[in-house]
Design a protein that fits this description.
The chain is of the alpha/beta class. It is 41% helix and 21% strand. The chain has eight helices and eleven strands. The strands form three sheets. Strands 5-4-3-6-7-11-8 form a seven-stranded mixed sheet, with helices on both faces. The protein has a two-stranded antiparallel sheet with strand order 1-2. α7 (204-217) packs antiparallel against α8. The longest helix is centred in the last third of the chain and has 28 residues, at 236-263. It is globular and about 50 Å long.
Length: 279
């Protein structure tokens, strides 16, 4: 499905991610194709750590027992497949692009991965105990997000859980975020009742630094990054200086992140994690 995005051009999720997988197939960490393709490896590694901590917290909220059957929608390069498997779950992955599946299999994510789109999942009704979606539906055009959520509910067993980590602020040519209430209402409209939710990725100092760079530099010679992040220099010395400074801002933000999670309202985060129950 193609939809006109904020820049006025046609956007097809499958076409976009096929291109990302091809461009970044040689990334050793496997993070570039599924996080921030134009960021340094150390930046993506830190974002991945924060997401992993959030997913572990969400699994505790979900209360899914060891041995449960989990589907990771939009499995990408297989990072969550490997982690769910290490946690003792039986895991299946599905992704819309052959390229991502190939990368995942090359990274030893196991054989249980299929090509399939979020809006037409190739599984029978009531098949899984938990469906996981980490920054996937936000890349589906708004008009098709309902179909994707309906499919996740359909393949869940009664009482099964849905765990989503999605963007709640920002803008971009291939992201379609919702406010927290929008994600909650989307789930409820398809028979998924919210158990709990929390903000994820505050990174207040880092966001302030990146926003300052964006405000000072304007939009000239900039390249937008993946998840609504303020635009970053395209190349050259300015790019190196930017990332050298940003390493410090990210480190300081990471140190203060636990405090931000306790005292800053959830809606201030860039992302949020939602845990739903079917029925």
């Amino acid at each position: 499905m193609a939809e006109t995005n904020a820049s006025g051009s046609a956007y097809s999720p499958k076409q976009y991610w096929t291109g990302v997988a091809k461009t970044h197939s040689g990334d050793e960490s496997g993070f570039a194709p599924v996080l921030h393709p134009d960021a340094p490896a150390w930046f993506n590694a830190q974002i991945d750590k924060l997401q992993f901590r959030a997913i572990n917290r969400a699994l505790g909220i979900a209360g899914i027992p060891t041995g449960a059957h989990v589907l990771d929608v939009g499995c990408g390069t297989g990072r969550w497949i490997r982690r769910y498997r290490a946690l003792g779950f039986r895991v299946t992955g599905v992704d819309a692009t052959d390229g991502m599946i190939r990368i995942a299999k090359n990274r030893d994510s196991g054989p249980s991965m299929l090509v399939g789109e979020a809006g037409a999942l190739p599984f029978p009704d009531g098949y899984f105990d938990l469906v996981s979606d980490v920054t996937v539906i936000q890349h589906v055009p708004m008009a098709a997000q309902g179909a994707a959520f309906a499919e996740m509910v359909r393949i869940l067993k009664p009482g099964g859980r849905i765990l989503i980590l999605e963007l709640i602020r920002g803008e971009g040519t291939h992201i379609f975020p919702r406010k927290p209430r929008g994600w909650i209402d989307l789930g409820r409209s398809y028979g998924a009742n919210l158990i709990d939710w929390f903000g994820q990725e505050y990174l207040l100092l880092d966001r302030a630094f990146a926003s300052a760079v964006h405000a000072i530099g304007g939009r000239r010679n900039k390249l937008p990054s993946k998840e609504g992040d303020p635009e970053i220099p395209r190349a050259g010395l300015s790019r190196r200086i930017f990332w050298n400074l940003r390493r410090s801002s990210l480190l300081l933000s990471t140190v203060t992140e636990p405090l931000a999670e306790r005292i800053v309202p959830n809606r201030i985060a860039t992302h949020a994690v939602f845990v739903f129950r079917k029925g």
